[in-house]
Amino acid sequence: MASDKTCPICGFQLISTDAANCPQCDADLTCFTVLDSIPDEMPVAPDVGEWKSENGGPKTEDRPLSSSLENPVSEKHFLGIWIFPGAVFLVLAGLMSGLLIAQSNQSEQSSPEVFKRFPMGIKIPVKTPSSYAPFDPSAFDGPGFFLKDAEEKQVESADFKKTSNTIRKGEIYTDYEVGENETLWRIAKKCYGNGFYFPVLMELNSGLGVYNLEKGARLKVLKDSGRAEHLYHQIVRVAGKRIWYGYRVINGDNFEGIAVKLYGSEGTVQRIMNDNPQASLQPGERIQVEVR
Question: With a threshold of 0.85, does the pTM exceed it?
């Protein structure tokens, strides 16, 4: 049953309450469930030397040293207060250790047979600049990262091999057939080595969103993970922990359809309208949408 539960790793929404893993990035959600179940306040130990008098009122005196031996129940209760946090810490440490090992093993596993023909990308950590200039739709030139009116011109970068002034598009892109239970996050991780690069797939495939990906669809993807990284930093801007993508409007788009594509069946139109108060949704127009 769906709920408002959201993955704390990739931001995927509408996760089932009993799901052990995120359906998009496969993150183990068990440890986060345990963290949420821990009470905010721990029980406070009673003051030493305070107990009730015969008439029921509080009475505070210096308790003899032997009182703890005569009242073993209170002693055990006092010790339990200190042992409980230590036990919780050990449980959480074990869960986090298991999570790290599982994710490490998963990342090292080889791709399925159907994807062996596809060149694997280099694992490159996401670089998110600390600040960006205000959002400017004219800064996006998609669908590729080539300049307008010069799609055959190779972009100059120290990270790319410069063999000539022009390169063939067939040497830059390839087709990718979507398999069973695939997500944009998983495809980006397979092709580019990092799931956070999934906005690159939306940029290269007009109208594609997180929730309208279908099995059997053929996607246009970059062969080189270095180019994917370069494009990623051109089409997103970062504000703290929030990441924004410049979505390009296509024919037939409306606020409701865009919300469903990006945020699922419970996506709110108001969320997009608040971020784009001047948007007219003309084909080719860029609007900013939060992808995390």
Answer: no
